[in-house]
Design goal:
By secondary structure, the protein is an all-beta fold. It is built from two helices and 27 strands. A five-stranded mixed β-sheet has the order 12-13-14-15-19. A four-stranded antiparallel β-sheet has the order 1-27-26-25, with no helix packed on it. It has a four-stranded antiparallel β-sheet with strand order 2-3-4-5, with no helix packed on it. Strand 13 and strand 14 form a beta hairpin. It is globular.
Length: about 350
């Protein structure tokens, strides 16, 4: 994969406004930001479309929901479904998932009835930071938490003890977690510790540690922070490995060769990235044939995937021929930033 230099950038938001998340949705991009707004963006020009919506008091996450619109959630304990055609909220569900009275609850809702179907209240002892359904079995749910645990539930079972089929002990506060395959789960902590669990090796009802522990990825990938693992049907899973002091973002694929490993020899560097600011989000769009990144500078950038990198008056992102130890300022040694 080759990537042309950044070919478009969105208008900057107000000073000190971060882009939290950017995702492709149909003909648009959708973003959330620290000013609690939901924005639609034209992917070719990255111009904001009319109808910016204030969605939450403390928006934290953004997910597509089929072709209906997007779901957002916030620290106000509300989940909203927004119809992107009308820019209006069509449904609200009130439920928080942060630690409350020593309980961090995982709740499955019947959206039409706006009633909870199942609640698991004892499986985590701290804030729930990630939820993900199994790629081929919709009744299996994954949850990750700052208590360092990744749990797997059979949601057809209401009794929590019976529903909790597997507990994966990552050992460090979970920032991101998800499925790599039907039987493999990954976890990335807030301090950039990465591990993969093969659930076929884990007896049901037992707590298990990583079957492939990578440890802290920063020295291994020669970076200062990680953007979440991004998956696409057409390419291997990719990590964004960033350096704000050196002002670049490396795209490094995670491949099974035959064990899972990072293919640093085929890494692609996005020179300039978002300057000294951290990249918070990245996504691929097959329709636009582009990579989009959003950062703490309040800007979304587009990088076009090409057969040959174009020369646009600046050095294009290329394969990294040799990784060097970074020599950045003290802030580069800080622990992983908390996401919100």
């Amino acid at each position: 994969m080759k990537v042309a230099p950044s070919v478009a950038a969105s208008p900057p938001l107000e000073p000190d406004t971060y882009i939290y998340e950017v995702i492709p949705f149909g003909d648009w991009l959708v973003s959330i930001s620290s000013d609690d707004s939901l924005r639609l963006i034209e992917p070719q020009t990255l111009q904001h479309l009319p109808g910016c919506t204030s969605v939450h008091d403390g928006v934290t996450c953004l997910k597509p929901i089929q072709d209906r619109g997007v779901l957002t959630a916030g620290r106000n304990g509300v989940v909203k479904c927004t119809d992107l055609r009308t820019r209006k909220t069509v449904q609200e569900i009130s439920k928080g998932t942060e630690l409350t009275s020593a309980q961090a609850t995982v709740t499955l809702w019947h959206v039409a009835a706006q009633q909870p179907l199942v609640q698991y209240i004892e499986s985590h002892s701290d804030d729930v930071t990630e939820l993900s359904f199994h790629p081929s079995s919709s009744s299996i749910l994954l949850s990750g938490s700052t208590d360092g645990l990744i749990n797997l539930y059979d949601t057809t079972i209401t009794d929590e003890d019976d529903a909790l089929t597997q507990v994966l002990n990552h050992g460090s506060s979970i920032a991101h977690a998800g499925f790599l395959s039907d039987h493999e789960v990954y976890g990335l902590s807030h301090d950039e510790i990465f591990g993969i669990f093969d659930t076929n090796d884990i007896p049901q009802g037992e707590t298990y540690e990583s079957s492939h522990a990578f440890g802290d990825l920063r020295p291994q990938l020669h970076c200062e922070y990680l953007v979440n693992l991004v998956r696409s049907d057409s390419i291997a899973p990719v990590f964004g490995a960033g350096s704000h002091s050196a002002r670049h973002l490396d795209l490094i694929s995670l491949e099974r060769l035959p064990r899972w490993s990072f293919n640093t020899s085929n890494a692609v560097r996005l020179l300039g990235a978002h300057g000294e600011e951290i990249v918070r989000s990245m996504c691929f769009s097959a329709d636009s044939n582009a990579i989009f990144t959003g950062g703490e500078d309040g800007i979304i950038r587009a990088w076009r995937v090409t057969e040959e990198s174009a020369d646009a008056g600046r050095e294009p992102p290329t394969k990294i021929e040799g990784q060097k130890k970074r020599n950045g300022p003290d802030k580069s040694e800080r622990a992983r930033f908390r996401p919100y």
